[in-house]
Design brief:
By secondary structure, the chain is α/β, with parallel strands linked by helices. Helices cover 35% and strands 13% of the residues. The chain is built from four helices and four strands. A two-stranded parallel ribbon has the order 1-2. The longest helix has 17 residues. The radius of gyration is 16 Å and the shape is globular.
Length: 128
């Protein structure tokens, strides 16, 4: 995130959960990090805002309940930003097994009608 910093701007601090999985690939992974993330947010008395930098937005709502400061999820922000610029959006997933979970999230957001499609990173357009 260093290129996003600027003189006099906010300090950007990246932190990973020590007890989290290597990656978020399943609903179990999402669920396993929700409360540790909330504890991290609740225990932080210096940050003005938080960004959950995982496309699954794990723990987003429970973290929002744990603080009065803004908590952003990159999936929610990315999709809403895309929709502010276009009628439809697409998603590139890291793994095929993540797509059903992403689809559930997009259904919960009421956005599946505007989804152009989702493909795993290692699949070409010709393979679909």
């Amino acid at each position: 995130l260093k290129p996003l910093g600027f003189e006099g701007g906010p300090e950007l601090v990246c932190q990973s959960l020590a007890e989290g999985p290597f990656g978020i690939e399943s609903q179990a992974d999402v669920d396993s990090v929700a409360m540790p993330l909330r504890k991290l947010v609740e225990g932080d008395n210096s940050s003005a805002a938080f960004v959950i930098a995982c496309y699954s937005d794990p723990g987003l709502q429970v973290c929002r309940e744990g603080t009065d400061r803004p908590v952003f999820g990159i999936a929610e922000c990315g999709v809403l930003t895309a929709l502010a610029r276009a009628e439809t959006f697409g998603v590139i997933a890291i793994a095929q097994r993540s797509i059903p979970r992403h689809m559930r999230y997009l259904r919960q957001m009421g956005l599946t009608e505007r989804l152009a499609g989702e493909r795993p990173l290692n699949m070409s357009v010709a393979e679909t």
